[in-house]
Amino acid sequence: MNFWDTFKTAWEGLTVNKLRSFLTTLGIIIGVASVIIMMAVSAGAEAVIAEQIQGLGANLIIVNPMRGVPGAGRTLLYDDALAIEEQIKGISGISAEQITAPLLIKAERETLELSVTGATPDYPAVRDVPVGSGRFFDQKDLDRKNKVVVLGYGIARDLFGDGIAVGQTVNIGTTRFKVIGVMAEKGTVGDVDYDGQIYIPLTVLFQKYLPSPLASDRLRTIYLEADSKETMDETILQIQNLMAKQHDVTLENPDFVVQTQQDIISTQEATTEAFRSLLAWVAGVSLLVGGIGIMNIMLVSVTERTREIGVRQSLGATPGDIRRQFLIEAIVLSLIGGLVGVAAGMSGAVLFGELGDMRTVIVPSSIPLSFAAAAMVGIFFGYFPANSAAQLDPIEALRHE
Amino acid sequence: MVDYLIETKALKKVYGSGEIAVAALDGVDVGVAAGEFVAIMGPSGSGKSTLMNILGCLDRPTAGHYILDEQDVSRLDKMELAYVRNHKIGFIFQSFNLLPRISALKNVTLPMLYGGNGLHPEEREERAMAALESVGLANRAHHRPSEMSGGQRQRVAIARALVNDPPLILADEPTGNLDTRSSKEIMEILHNLHNRGRTIAMVTHEPDIAAHTQRVICIRDGQVMTAGDCISSGVTL
Prior knowledge:
The complex is a heterodimer.
Chain A: H1 3-16, H2 18-55, E1 60-65, H3 78-87, E2 91-99, E3 103-106, E4 111-114, E5 117-119, H4 123-127, E6 131-134, H5 139-144, E7 148-151, H6 153-160, E8 169-172, E9 175-183, E10 188-189, E11 192-193, E12 198-201, H7 202-209, E13 221-226, H8 232-247, E14 256-260, H9 261-304, H10 306-314, H11 319-355, H12 366-390, H13 394-399
Parallel strand pairs in A: 5-12, 7-9
Antiparallel strand pairs in A: 1-13, 1-14, 2-5, 2-13, 3-4, 3-8, 6-9, 7-12, 8-9, 10-11
Chain B: E1 4-15, E2 22-28, E3 31-33, E4 37-41, H1 48-55, E5 63-68, E6 71-72, H2 78-88, E7 89-92, H3 104-113, H4 121-134, H5 150-162, E8 168-172, H6 180-195, E9 199-203, H7 207-210, E10 215-220, E11 223-225, H8 227-232
Parallel strand pairs in B: 4-9, 4-10, 7-8, 8-9
Antiparallel strand pairs in B: 1-2, 1-3, 1-5, 5-6, 10-11
Helix pairs in contact in B: 3-4, 3-5, 4-5, 5-6
C-alpha cells in the first residue's frame, strides 16, 4: 500500500468519528499552545529587562548597603557619597538617594499619602529622567536646605490637575514646600513608577524626616555615572577600595555592594531563566499528557475496530500495512493538534499581552519547535497501539464482535 | 493425474500442548481440482472452520502440507500469507464483513489497495465498478452497506472477492444470514462464476445449498469422511 493510499485510509478512519478525533487532539492542542504561550511570556519578561537597560541610563554604577548583614542598613552614608565625589576620578555624575516612610502630601484641594525621595542635583542626569517644566534643585538648595519640591509628572497632575504646578505650594507632613519643577513624563521602568515620585533636597530629608541621630545621614542607594564603559571596571575597583577604607572593612567581607546595571540585569535574567525552564517543563508535561491521550484513544480505537482490521487482513493487508495505517492516524491527529495548537498559542499569547498585565513576545522558533514536538509525540505514542493492531491474529479479529 | 488447485497432505492442526492438546484437524487429505465447485460440510466442532481458515491462509497448520496453486503455503510467514490471500483467494463471509462506514465501491476497492499491485486510483475504481456491475449493483455503488439489503451486501462482498481476479473463491456459509430469495440470487451468481471456470470451495450446513455443488467434502472429528458415511451421518448435519 503506497503512502497516499495509507494516508487516505487513515484520514477516513479519523473523519468517521470527528468528535472523538477532536477530543484526542485537544491534549496536543493545549500542549503546543502552552509551549508557545509560555515561551512568549518569558520572552516578554526578557524584553522588559532589556528595556530596563535602556531606562536606567548609561554606564551606571550602583552602590548599595549589603543586605543580610546586621547593621548594614545604617552603613551607607551621605559622607560616602561626598567622599566618592571628591576622590574618585572618571565619574560624571553622582546621585545619592534616600526615601521616607509614607507621608501626607497636601495641595490646595488634594491629599496623597506617599514616600518622598531625597535626592541630589545630579539625579535627572544620572537616572535619565529629564525635567519637564521649572527646574530641579541645585547645590545651593541643598546647602541652604531650601524647602523646595520637584514633582513627578503624574503627581503634578494628581495634585493640580491641568493647572500649572510650578510656583504652587505643597505641604509634606507639617512642612510647607514650594514647587519648583515638574519632571517630564517617563512612565514605569522595571518596577519604578517615575511619574509617581516626589523629590526634595536630600539634606532637607535628613533634617526633617529622619530625625534619629543614629541614622540622620544614611542613604538608600548611591547611583554613579561613569565617564566611559572602558574605564568602568577600574572605577568600580577604586570605589570598592575607598568604601572599604571609609567603613574600615576588608574587601573580602564588605558591608556594601558595588554593582553595575549589567550585574542587576544578570541577576534578573537568572530569575527569568529559572522561570522559563519551569514553564518549559510545564509545557512539556502537558504535551506528554496529550500524547498519552492519543495513545489511550488509539488503543480504544484499535479494540473497537478489531473487526475492520480482521477484514483488511483477510483482503491481504500485511502487518506493516495495518501498523502504518494506525501510526499515520496518530501522526495526523498530532499534526492537526500541532497546527491548531500553534494558532491557539499565537492568539493566546497576543490575548495575554492585551488583557493581562504581562508582556508577551511570540518566539518564532517556538512554532517549528512545538510542531516538531507534537509530531514526535504522535510517532512515539502512536507506535504501540499501531503495533498491537498489526499483531492481531486475523481469525480472532474477524470473530470479534 | 488430476490438476489440483488446492491439495492438502496429512494436514494437522493442534490447539494447546501436552495433556490438554486437542487436534482440530487430524490428518486431512483433500484435493480440489481447478474449476471445481465443492461444498465442505460437517457438524459444529468437526474442524471445518479450522480447515477453512487454513485453506484461506488465515492460519497455518501444525503439521502437514497445503499446496495452493502449486505453491506450498503451509510454512509461509505472516507477510507472505497476506500476499497469498490478496492474490490467490477471494473471501465471502456469512456476515459479509463489509466496512460499514464506506461506500460499496470503496469496499470493493479495498483488495486492490494491498498486495502492491500498483494500480492507479482511476484504474482501481474502474475495476471495482466493473466487479459491481458483474453482480448487478452498479447503481448502488455509492451507497453504504447499511443502506442495502442482506442480499445486496453479500453481492458487494462477492464483487470484492472477485476484484483481484483470484483463482480460488472461499465462501463460508454465504447464505447463512439470508432469506430464501436472496440465497437463490447468491447461489446463481456462484454458479455463474463456476461456469466461467472459477474454483469455489463453500462451507455450508444446508443440504439444499450443498446440492448446488459438484461434490461434498464431509469433515467429522478432524477427519475427512467417505461419501457414504457422509450421507449416512445425515447431510442434515
